[in-house]
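Hello, quick one for you while I still have it in my head. I'm working through a protein record and want to make sense of it properly. Would you mind checking whether the tokens look sensible for this chain? I owe you a coffee for this, so here goes:
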Amino acid sequence: MSTIITFISIFLLQAVMAVSDTIPQCLSLHSDPSHPISAVTYFPNNSSYPPILEAYIRNLRFSSPTTPKPSFIVAPNHVSHIQASIICGKNFGLEMRIRSGGHDYDGLSYVAKAPFAILDMFMLRSVKVHVEDQSVWVDSGSTIGELYYQIAEKSKILGFPAGVCHTVGVGGHFSGGGYGNMMRRFGISVDHIVDALIVNAEGRVLDRKGMGEDLFWAIRGGGGASFGVIVSWKIKLVPVPQVVTVFRIEKTLEQGASDIVHQWQYVANKIHDGLFIRVVISPVVRMGKKTIRAKFNALFLGNALELVHVMNASFPQLGLVGEQCTQMSWIDSVLFWDNYPVGTSANALLQRHDAPEKFLKKKSDYVQKPISKTGLEGIWKKMMELEKPVLTFNPYGGKMSEISEQETPFPHRAGNLYKIQYSVNWKEKGEDVANRYLYSIRSLYDYMTPYVSSSPRSSYLNYRDVDIGVNGRGNSTYAQASVWGKKYFKTNFDRLVKIKTRVDPSNFFRYEQSIPSLASARSIVSEELALKA
């Protein structure tokens, strides 16, 4: 008996070693030999594996010794590396995680429960600006800071509507929607994407014409990682004035913050569409007493004189005066909104790691009716009780109300006054500490239920939140995925499922919140009947 056990043990060890040997062979076989994939492939026994893995983990909750690690990492610098990774991932039964900037708040771009590999896109960071037709081809591994920098290098009167955190990767940002502080004038990032290159589940490289309009629709806000690996995007730039104006004003409860925020709800989505006023609500301690601070951050696509006139006419409650306004170029406003001191060089936008990472959790909501002053005061009381969670209110209206919910998978358009981001960050290690912070943000989210959208209670895909639901292991059913899918995509979820079923029937591109393929689930459940054409 012991001889048999010994034989089996040796056989299994040889099998494991054979697989380890064969993955590199498979990758080499299916990639361009003039761009050796071995130079950008990292296995756990490679000394570069830990720093490559950790470089783009932006949430320390997913950087512990017990966090599942990938079987290997490929950092492609050639499209054939992506093709080979897909083919070999299929051959060896591995799930594929696709990471561009690492800002998936719940770590789904670099963590999995099943055996997996990571395609780490950071080497693909080309940005080619064409001023003549006001377009850019930008790789998914670029950051939006690099995109902004290259645009500003070529033009002082062109910009792009995207996010305010410069280290966010283009790939995830665009494929989830991509909102920013010019969205009331121009809409969001996906409203300006005109072409893309994707590697599909068969390893084929397709542009917009090759992939067809359905798939092109799906990747512009439906989460690209459900459908393939998006290599690059072609975007159309937007005009920006040579001079824009910013301000940042703080008010506490003692300074009338409740009245001002209450009025903001009636104004911010209707005011001049070139004005974006974000409000960040934080519990703070002043003079030994708990209070609430409301910080009003604004970008105005115009000069200070015009801005003061607009504010006096529409929002005098804030009390803005000319001395509180700062005029600057659009690219300098990008730095201001990313909390750099005025006068910072645009070179700062090229830095990919300029602050220590933290433990964090985010959530989101949409508000469609103004919250009463009494309601706001109850929220302030809850926030002071919990002490840590912060709320960020982002106004809608303007161009956002003019675009149909069905134009792209991103459905959060007309009817929304503002979006809420819930945020809690911490530096202390330990599971008990994490649970305390997670409890605080979830408690605030629960408290907000009466004040936010319902049926569904909507969420923003790029504020990834596994609390709202996840797929089951393996091939998820429509019913399982619709729990979270309707919150992100509303009625667009059904169209996304149809497209997924057609372009990736075997459900190779899957993760905890990927769009399900009904073809792969039919042996389990017949819920595809719910999606009759």
